[in-house]
Design brief:
With about 400 residues, this protein is α+β, with helices and mostly antiparallel strands. It contains 11 helices and 16 strands.
């Protein structure tokens, strides 16, 4: 006897029945003529089946282990069932048929089409994205706005059923409601069955002979609708607001997806946002910088409707001797924090001072400045030139102008 059945299946002689069964399934799927281009596949497949027939039968296995010929000691060569007891695998049926679709499903994942059943006409709708352009004040303090959205909604005529008035879907006459059809072909292995999606109903298991005239059986129609969007205080460009169930309705009147509103904040002529702080530049004359003064500042709240004068303006004190690029801070006049422990707490308003030097002087003004220079010892050769520029000064000045 030249055939070593243990070697054919790749198992040791002390292999358990379960190990023999697993090895056989693996080898059968590897050498099956319908899934390999090997010209010797047929012979290899027969050898694998013969090996399993012997080693899975205790009597034949005992004959083989004693050195006898089990194929001539009760039972000729035949094909055993490699997939017996595997549930979702079709295997060789009692009628001698073999389901290729189930074998391929076992090899590459998933079950056959028949095991899935008819698919539903109702599906979840897609999410949608809109972009909303806001002013800095709207983004900083929040707002409620209206948006027009082109989207799918439930068909008002059929309420999502997809059928005309007074009609219903009917069971498919080809697949009888299963959503799949099976074709049988003869081969040397017996009847080979392949299961595919029913071409008549596209796998739904039913057809709609009288579709809704408005949605053509889809259960949804495209239209424009208006939605209200509440924007929380403190949003910035790139933030997205999620509105659950406000996206498009799915086919068959399925549940709607979500709507995402992406915020785009326009630049402001006066204020620049830095996190939760607002920054602005204030130009004052050199006399005010030298002597000090109080300057009224119009805040960002002034752009909101119904803002009181107290909220719209703040008095900023300029200390005497203020230098150019000095940053003064007004507490609590920035942007509310959007999230975190400080949610709702407002940042600060930073005011960078630019000192303006006069370019045109009257004779009287020039005389007064000359007198001041003499009194301060800053005239003629007494004018000092500082070396080693203040890097902090230039950094502040750059930030103030570049925004």
């Amino acid at each position: 006897m030249s055939t070593d059945y243990y070697e054919v299946l790749g198992v040791p002689r002390d292999a358990t029945p379960e190990q023999i069964k697993r090895a056989y399934r693996k080898q059968a799927m590897r050498v099956h003529p319908d899934v390999t281009d090997d010209p010797d596949a047929e012979e290899k497949f027969k050898a694998v089946n013969e090996a399993y027939e012997v080693l899975s039968d205790p009597q034949k296995k005992a004959v083989f282990d004693r050195g006898g010929d089990p194929m001539h000691n009760g039972g000729g060569a035949g094909y055993a069932d490699p997939f017996a007891g595997m549930g979702g695998f079709g295997g060789f049926s009692s009628a001698g048929g073999f389901d290729v679709g189930d074998l391929l499903g076992a090899m590459f994942g998933g079950g056959g089409a028949a095991s899935r059943g008819p698919r539903s006409r109702v599906h979840q709708g897609s999410d949608q994205l809109l972009r909303l352009r806001l002013s800095l004040a709207e983004a900083a303090f929040g707002t409620t706005t209206k948006l027009n959205l082109d989207t799918y909604v439930v068909c008002p005529t059929c309420s999502g059923k997809g059928t005309a008035a007074g009609s219903e879907p009917v069971t498919c006459v080809q697949c009888h409601g299963s959503g799949s059809v099976t074709q049988v072909q003869r081969s040397f292995l017996g009847d080979i069955r392949s299961t595919t999606v029913c071409p008549t109903c596209d796998g739904y298991g039913s057809t709609i002979p009288n579709p809704c005239p408005e949605c053509s059986g889809q259960g949804r129609v495209r239209t424009r609708r208006e939605i209200s969007v509440k924007v929380p205080a403190g949003v910035s460009s790139g933030n997205r607001i999620q509105l659950h169930g406000q996206g498009e309705v799915g086919t068959g009147g399925g549940p709607a997806g979500d709507l995402y509103v992406e915020v785009l904040v326009a630049e402001h002529e006066v204020f620049r946002r830095d996190g939760d702080n607002l920054e602005m530049v204030l130009t004052i004359p050199m006399t005010a910088a030298a002597l000090g003064c109080t300057v009224p500042i119009t805040t960002l709240e002034a752009e909101l409707d119904g803002t009181s004068d107290e909220d719209a303006r703040v008095e900023l004190t300029i200390p005497p001797g203020t230098q150019a690029a000095t940053r003064l801070v007004v507490k609590g006049r920035g942007v509310p924090a959007l999230r975190g422990r400080d949610k709702g707490r407002r940042g600060d308003l930073g005011v960078t001072v630019v000192v303006e030097t006069p370019t045109r002087l009257t004779d009287e003004q020039r005389e007064l400045l000359n007198r001041l220079a003499q009194l301060r010892g800053e005239d003629g050769e007494n004018v000092g030139v500082r070396s080693g520029a203040d890097k902090g000064f230039f950094n502040r000045l750059r930030d103030a102008f570049n925004g």
